[in-house]
Amino acid sequence: MEAAYLPPEILLDIFHRLPAKSILSCVCVSKYWLSLIKTPDFVSAHHFNQQSAISSSSNPHPLFLLRLCVGSALVNRYSIHRDDRRFTHYAEIKPPSSINNQSFSIVGSCQGLVCLMHDLYASNYTIILWNPSIGKTFALPEPGVTFETHGGFEALLGFGFDSSTNDYKVVRVVRLLEYEEIAIEVEVFSLNAGSWKTITSTAPQYNIVERGSQAFVNGSVHWVATRPGNDGGGDKNLILGLDLKGEERFRELELPESLKLERAMFLTVCGYKESTIAVFKRPYFTEAESEIWVMEEYGAAESWVRLLTLGMYGGRLPRALGFRGNGDMLFELAGGEIVSGDPESFEIKELGLWGEAGYSVVGSFMETLVLLDRSS
């Protein structure tokens, strides 16, 4: 019997079990196979199967996406690695030439998609969603808040996934600069809807760090923000979260006392063990130490603990890139070497990875077909 005439339910059952790269080969076999695969229902079902596989014991080593910049020309090199003891190389990724340059920075990586923004100059509103597994990109429409509509501004992005609707969302927090008081506008792009909407009415009027860090944890995007002081008190830092599900509500997470008065631009938020957050305190130019704090119980201010204080290593302070599944950390050392370190013993494991110092980025990853059924 020819494969093209197998009952569709049997073919779909087979396709659902295949990795994304194998599916790409299948769409080239026949128009019939293509018609079964290139549909929103199949893409969504395949994505769900991939999520289930990651959480199962049969797939103990999830994936990481790593971007290194190499050579004097700072050429981007993307690769996928398993989160095993050796950080084993899984695949090399060649991004489209349109985004493979230093004009684009990575906002975040979530559920198999990477969000990039053009940040060479403020009046460029190019935001791209990229699926490295299938090599496809999707350019977001221009947001509502622009230089032409609102004048000068500073912008901060967040990227995450709404599991209640299987929808990827990009959040844009904008501080308008032509007002004496803090004036914040917030827009949310929904991939399902293909459009932006404004949720400014619910947004706290807090200061933000332009192009600052973001972390997607527990269904919410998190940033470092600064709350204006009341009754003569000074401004204080906090973590501002936006739940991407349902009514898209904001919430505030208190920081440790020692971080509330630090310069917000020196604080970086990231995910920790999938269910809570951590904050890296980078040093001022005159300081010789940096700190890593973790919130052991998400939302509980009293659960913050200082996990590690970092001093000089090889003539330079290590730059924390993120946490691995077992709680170890990925660091960038002097000269751009990427290593894995135990935050308790600070035992270092070399991974044989090098890039130009200051440019390396790491994020969680999974293979998916999302964007396969969409026009670029």
Descriptive account of the structure:
There is one protein chain. The chain is mainly beta and 376 residues long. 12% of the residues lie in helices and 40% in strands. It contains six helices and 25 strands. Strands 12, 13, 14, 15 and 16 form a five-stranded antiparallel β-sheet that branches. A four-stranded antiparallel β-sheet has the order 3-2-1-25, with no helix packed on it. The two termini are 37 Å apart.
How would you summarize the topology of this molecule?
Layout: H1 8-16, H2 20-26, H3 31-37, H4 40-55, E1 63-70, E2 75-82, E3 89-93, E4 104-110, E5 113-118, E6 127-131, E7 136-139, H5 147-150, E8 153-162, E9 167-176, E10 184-190, E11 195-198, E12 207-208, E13 215-217, E14 220-227, E15 236-243, E16 250-253, H6 257-260, E17 267-272, E18 276-281, E19 290-295, E20 304-310, E21 319-323, E22 329-332, E23 337-341, E24 348-354, E25 361-365
Antiparallel strand pairs: 1-2, 1-25, 2-3, 4-5, 5-6, 6-7, 8-9, 9-10, 10-11, 12-14, 13-14, 14-15, 15-16, 17-18, 18-19, 19-20, 21-22, 22-23, 23-24
